[in-house]
Every structure is written in C-alpha cells, then in structure tokens.
What does this fold into?
Amino acid sequence: MGKYTLDRTRRRLGYSVLGALGVWMVWSLLPGVPVLRAPRASADEKAQGASIFEHEWQPHDPLANGDGLGPVFNARSCAECHFQGGVGGGGDNQHNVLAFEAHPTRDNPEVKGGLVHKFAVEYQYKEGQQALREFFPVVPFGVKVESNCQVLRLDFDPIRTESVNSTALFGAGWIDRIAGKSILHNSMKTSVSQIGKELNSDFGGVGAGRPRILPDGRVGKFGWKAQFATLEEFVAAACANEIGLGNPKMSQAKPMVKDDYPDISPDLDPKQFRSLVAFVDTLPRPAIILPSLPKERAQAERGEQVFRTVGCAACHTPDIGGVEGVYSDFLLHRLDDPSKSVKYGSKETVEIPLPDEHPLPAEWKTPPLWGVADSAPYFHDGSSGTLKAAIENHHGDAESVLERYKALPDVDRTALIGFLKTLKAPADGKPVEKPQHTEVAQAK
Ligand code: HEC
Ligand code: HEC
It folds into this structure.
C-alpha cells in the first residue's frame, strides 16, 4: 500500500469518526420521541387482568399453575395494597413493605437487596430481621469516621431497611411510554439552566438530581428508587415478591431461610401475566378536577402559578416526554437535612463504597404528583400524613425552594395546597368492591 492510499484511509477514518461524533451530539440534544398514543388493550384482556389484580390468592390456588400464594408473601392480592381512590390506587401505612439493602463488604462485595416478607405459608419459612443478620453480619471496625481531627474505627452494619409505602398506579402505562432519553434530555436542560443561574450569582437554585442508570444502561422510572425501567418488569417483580406468584418473567421469591426451596412451575401462565400487565398498563390516568366554586377555582389556579414560581416545578416537571401533567423529572434527589446526615460523602468511609450509579440510602425518585390528592400518606415511607407535612419535609436539594415557600404569604401557601388538591385519582377508575383494610392475611 502506498503512502497516498494510507493517508486517504486515515483521512476517511477521521471523517467517519467526526461524522459519528456529530450524529451523536445532535442525537443527544434531541428531546426523545414523545408519547403520542394512549395505552390500549381489549376489553376482555382488561377484565381478565382486573380479576387477577383483585383475586385473593390462597396456597395451591385453583387459578394458579404452581403452588399459589407464597411460600413467602406480603399480602393476598394486588388490590389489598393498591386501593385508594379505586382499584390500582396507593395504599395506607398498614400495608407498607419492608425493603432491605445490604451494602458491600469484603465478604459480600456486591449490593444486595430484597424484601423481608411479613408472612409465610408455613411457620418454618417465616422471615425476619434476625434471619437477615445471619446473612449480613456486622463488620467489626469496618468503617472509618473522621471527627475533630480524630480518626475512629467503628463497626459497620451493612444492612439498611426501609418501610416503603405503596404508590398509586393510575397512568402507569403513560409513564412506561416516556422515553428514557426524554428524562436524560430534561435532566441536561435543567443542569444547564442551573449553571447559568450560578454564573449570574443566583445561588437560590435547586440541587440537580441524577437519572437512575440501570446496569444494562436503561433509565429507571418505576419504584421509589427508580429501580425498574419498564412496567412489565415491575409487575413481574410485584407478583413474585409481594404475593409469591411465579410468572414467565420472574420466579417466585424463595424464603430467605430456605434458599433450596424447590423450583416450581410459574403460578401465572403467559396469558394470565399478559392480561395483568395490560390491566395495569391501561389504568386510567389521574384527573385534574377543579373546584366548582369560583373563589376556590381561582385559588387553585393561583396555586399552580405559585408551584412554578416557588420552584416546585424544577423537580416536579409538569410535562415530560409528551405526557402532560405528570409532575415528575423521574430523577433521584436527596431531601434529607444535610446537617443531620453524616453518612456517605461526608465524614464516613466504608471498606467498600457503593458503586457510583447505585442510589445512596437518602436518594429517592421524585414521585409524580398526578393523583396526589388521593394518595396520602406521602413520601417513600409514608411519614407525611398531609400535603402540608409533605411539603415541609423537603430539605437537601429542595432547601432553597422550602425557604421561598416559608416566606410566602399565607394565602399563597393555602393556594398551593388548593392546587395540589385538584390532582385527583381518575373519576373513571374501577371502584373497590370491599374494604381492603380488613384483616391482613395471616401465616398458617
Ligand atoms: C404488600 C403490598 C403490595 C402488594 C400486595 C402489591 N404491591 Fe405494588 N407496590 C407496593 C409498594 C410498597 C410499592 C412501592 C415499591 C417501591 O417503589 O420500592 C409498589 C409499587 C408498585 C408498582 C410501581 C409503580 C410506580 O409507578 O413506581 C407497580 C407497577 C406495582 N406496585 C404493581 C403491583 C401489582 C401488579 C401487584 C400484584 C401482583 C402489586 N403491585 C402488589 C406494595 C404492594
Ligand atoms: C429538589 C427536587 C424537589 C423539589 C424542588 C420539590 N420536590 Fe417534592 N418531592 C421530591 C422528592 C424526591 C420527593 C420524594 C421524597 C421521598 O419520598 O423521600 C418529593 C415528594 C413530594 C410530595 C409527596 C408525594 C408522594 O406521592 O408521596 C409532594 C406532595 C411534593 N413533593 C410536593 C412538592 C411541592 C409543593 C414543592 C414545592 C414547594 C416540591 N415538592 C418541591 C423532589 C422535589
């Protein structure tokens, strides 16, 4: 090969690299394909899915192809935890779920997570925090703490538990269709405008959140930690973990205390599973219901303006990816009081840090606010009973917004809550047929 052809090859290669880079840059600046069509399913499929969602599963249930309910479970039906404002709504604190995460240590270098199930079909399978401790013991002197120029070595407890509240599922199909790219694009746009503000010495901005990028590169959208990218995967996990229903996408949870519990054929067959996903996918989206009295209506309208001017909309993005009125950026934020937390990123060093892309214990996804008027209690742990309490629970990334909120005249604060009260569960949801508060299922 002569020198000339070699140069030409190099030049061509250079051009194509540049070209690819250009295409990538343009692509990354585009906002992602907006959602244009509503989720759809046939009436038959929706009806079958609804009956599976509401069915109270029993051990060896005739509807199941495997062992039915369990071996370990948190409730007997989806509707038992998802019922407020209609079938598929949020749940009360009585139905919170105990989630755990075991942080990396030398002996267990990977982050592990799961649920501590409330119930078991047989007493010998019963789970508890003690069983968890046997798997993830405290590491003696596993953490280095710097305080007042002193370095201390303390025991490291790798286990974090969190009681999580059931979210409302109305409109889930719309969220499923929001392109991951739309979330990344919105996140980039907000960061750029934040930098702009800081250059103008306006430091009253809002702490930037970050997208949850899952190990396979997709953007997480579902769950309080944005731990799943698609609705189908979340439904599969809910069947397997909450009720103990194996399905085509996930096998049922095995008792923590009996890892060699036999593999059993899936409880739900592909058709049953598809219809359940279709039902959740087509749950109607939440509604905006304005008060009929003109005075209250004007107040709610004023409240929406306050929502934007005070800075709530920086995280509770009203429209994203073509879905209007969802009020979330789907990013992880920290709302804990920084002066009260020493863990991670400040003065504590653990043996093996969490991987960068893994959410910190204090990071939570901005919850969509559509339907919020009908989904109390609030926050991941259901610790805020009212909308007012929920707002006042914002610190960390939202501290500046909270300060502006506190400085508002009373009428504006009331108007803001008046606006949130217009974000209702859909009027055309399926009513809950029987009270779901009654007895929680008991282990045999
Ligand atoms: C014991 C109570 C309980 C039961 C039973 C239950 N869930 Fe949930 N569900 C929850 C909790 C708690 C969350 C929030 C979990 C999280 O984010 O980590 C949740 C979240 C979800 C989400 C994610 C919603 C979002 O927007 O992030 C979906 C989808 C879901 N559940 C579907 C189902 C389905 C389908 C069933 C029945 C197979 C079911 N759930 C049964 C408690 C329950
Ligand atoms: C920095 C981002 C950010 C800002 C700014 C912000 N929020 Fe939030 N909001 C969140 C996150 C994150 C959560 C969930 C926190 C958790 O569960 O621990 C949340 C939770 C909520 C909830 C509870 C929703 C539920 O389903 O549990 C309400 C209501 C709420 N915010 C309203 C507001 C209002 C009103 C404002 C403006 C005064 C505001 N937020 C400003 C990020 C933000």
User: Anything to note?
Assistant: Residues 74-75, 78, 80-82, 95, 97, 99, 164-167, 169, 172, 222-224, 231, 234-235, 238-239, 242-243, 276, 280 surround heme C (ligand 1) (CB under 6 Å).
